[in-house]
Write a structure and sequence with these properties.
heterodimer; A: mainly alpha; 10 helices; 78% helix; B: Rossmann fold; Alpha-Beta Plaits; 6-stranded mixed beta sheet; globular
Chain lengths: 274, 310
């Protein structure tokens, strides 16, 4: 078997330094493909349930009562927020579970790190793979919103890239936290109850943030969901935001992504070297 | 072997975690084609040393080169030549046996064309061909271990590092694994093994470094260690837990050295049968007795005053 063992240099280190993260992506996608029926069902069922209950049900009441929100029908107003929420949720699933598994449950990151792939590349690969799933899910979500009549023009599809930005920024940050967390039980509890739920409810998802009392608006200001929802509404139906706020939204997402990746790189490299 | 190229060289290697010194100024060399073992109890510093060699842990001080390179400066370059088998199997349980080999090859940047025939070779080597499409989580402990070793060979490494390769395996699985490692050794792969099993160290290693509390206690071939630090044979006697300590002073005068363990006394001599006969002549009749040849366990006991499983 191993007659050539050790006699050949078959590994191209420079190539791994350039493209190592893509091998990690390939590994994650190999796992994800095993769950494709479940992922597809969830990607289709979730928007259907939400759009029927909130977009159509609640929307009918609101449209009848006030003719919509922000000058458009309720589903159009809601669509960018729902897409961003779905994107964030998908990204979290794909960064939190693999990170906890890789460091704690079966320590597969240590196996990857014993090859020439660095901790930084593992983090990059996990995030990229999560964004592949995000793209898959929000494309299905967007298609269903379109079928429900949520996009009033071709611009409606621009909600997909904005939701992608939310997933990248928040996913990077949470991946760093997941790598830092030592206790995975309380991690899920804190993430679900004290992070995701308030963000979902207080980020101007179902109504404009300006309708909230001033002392609660800060939750939205901190939330990438609000920033991408605002951008999404601006791009899809012309919701008014100033040039300054446009820059603030973009700047906030870029800053969160940059900080999140730096934090995640540091956590991955420190934990692999312990 | 002495003329072979030096692949790994450490000088005054130290690793500290706060006040705790895991590796305390050790020096060693490993040559190409050699099977080199780190023998010692848990906490001796074996795994820490292995991780420094594997370029996944930084040293506190001292020097180390692997294939002539410093692992802190050339981590990826060094890792490209290493196959690592960790203490605990870290296979991807969601994937099949075949997929685990495939993706590990991809982590080394290997092409699909290279990996495809390699998987067949490795499955054959690990006796897992029939388990090719089975999910890893359904494999037995021995099969997982063999798969982890096969995985480490996917990139045809220059050095194969095995951290406690047979811990937790039943005797049959251990022997199958030893057989596979022997084959690699015959093919000239440099093996680096940590173990706290003396039989494993004797079976697999050309040269051993006995470690305890981060330091090197001795270094030689298994036979050399036994020759230098023990007698040819050992007589194990039991007089009953209450009497062992009482008769110990008498026994001490009859042989080169004794070790009083909680349940038995070990008497070191070149001829155990003669010694047993002499005991009878003096009216000392143990409840049980056993004559055996000296082992690395005896060497470790001599060097540290403790058994390997303490």
């Amino acid at each position: 078997m191993a007659a050539r063992q050790g006699s050949l240099v078959i590994v191209d280190v420079d190539r791994i330094k350039r493209h190592g993260a893509l091998s990690v992506v390939e590994g994650r996608l190999l796992v994800l493909l095993k769950y494709i029926p479940g992922l597809t069902s969830a990607a289709v069922a979730n928007p259907f349930l939400y759009l029927i209950a909130i977009g159509v049900g609640v929307g009918k009441l609101i449209n009848a009562h006030s003719g919509g929100v922000d000058g458009v029908k309720y589903l159009t107003f809601l669509a960018p927020a729902l897409l961003s929420t779905a994107a964030i949720q998908n990204a979290l699933d794909e960064v939190v579970f693999p990170t906890l598994e890789g460091f704690k449950w079966n320590k597969s990151f240590f196996a990857i790190n014993s090859t020439p792939i660095s901790g930084r590349q593992i983090a990059n690969g996990i995030l990229i793979a999560s964004l592949v799933r995000v793209t898959f899910s929000v494309t299905i979500y967007g298609t269903i919103v379109y079928l429900f009549g949520g996009f009033t023009s071709i611009r409606g599809w621009l909600a997909i890239p904005t939701s992608f930005a939310a997933a990248a920024a928040f996913g990077a940050f949470i991946m760093g936290i997941a790598a830092w967390a030592k206790n995975d039980d309380s991690f899920f509890m804190v993430l679900g109850r004290f992070v995701m739920m308030p963000l979902f409810l207080f980020s101007g998802t179902f109504y404009q943030l300006s309708s909230m009392p001033i002392y609660l608006r800060w939750i939205g200001w901190l939330s990438p969901l609000w920033h991408t929802t605002e951008l999404g509404r601006y791009l899809t139906y012309g919701h008014h935001i100033s040039g300054l706020m446009f820059c603030v939204h973009i700047g906030y997402l870029v800053a969160m992504f940059s900080f999140g990746m730096r934090f995640a790189h540091r956590q991955f490299e420190q934990r692999l070297a312990k | 072997m002495a003329n072979q190229e030096v692949l790994i060289e450490a000088k005054q290697l130290v690793k500290r975690y706060g006040d705790f010194t895991a590796v305390n100024g050790i020096d060693f060399q490993v040559r190409k084609g050699e099977s080199f073992g780190f023998l010692g109890p848990n906490g001796a510093g074996k795994s820490t040393t292995m991780r420094i060699i594997a370029a996944t842990l930084t040293r506190t001080s001292g020097e180390i080169t692997i294939l002539g390179k410093d692992p802190e400066k050339f981590g990826p370059e060094i890792k490209a030549h290493l196959g690592v088998v960790p203490q605990t199997d870290n296979l991807d349980n969601a994937l099949t046996v075949e997929e685990n080999l495939y993706i590990y090859g991809r982590y080394f940047g290997l092409s699909k064309k290279f990996i495809a025939p390699k998987i067949d070779e490795l499955l054959d080597f690990a006796q897992l061909t029939e388990k090719r499409s089975v999910k890893v989580e359904t494999l037995s402990g021995g099969m997982k271990r063999r798969l982890t070793i096969a995985r480490a060979l996917v990139s045809e490494p220059e050095i194969l590092m095995l951290d406690e390769p047979t811990t937790g395996l039943d005797p049959q699985a251990r022997h199958i694994l030893w057989d596979r490692l022997f084959r690699l050794k015959e093919q000239g792969v440099t093996l680096l093994i940590t173990t706290h099993y003396m039989d494993e160290a004797e079976q697999l290693c050309d040269r051993l470094m006995v470690m305890d509390k981060g330091s090197i206690m001795a270094e030689d071939s298994p036979a050399g260690l036994i020759k230098n630090f023990s007698t040819k044979e050992v007589l194990e006697v039991r007089f009953g837990s209450d009497r062992n300590a009482d008769v110990a002073p008498q026994l001490k005068e009859m042989c080169e050295r004794i070790e009083v363990l909680p349940d038995r006394i070990l008497m070191y001599a070149d001829d155990g049968e003669v010694l047993l006969h002499d005991l009878g002549q003096k009216g000392l009749h143990p409840l049980t007795s056993l004559v055996r040849r000296s082992s690395l366990e005896d060497v470790f006991l001599r060097l540290t005053g403790r058994t390997l499983v303490d």
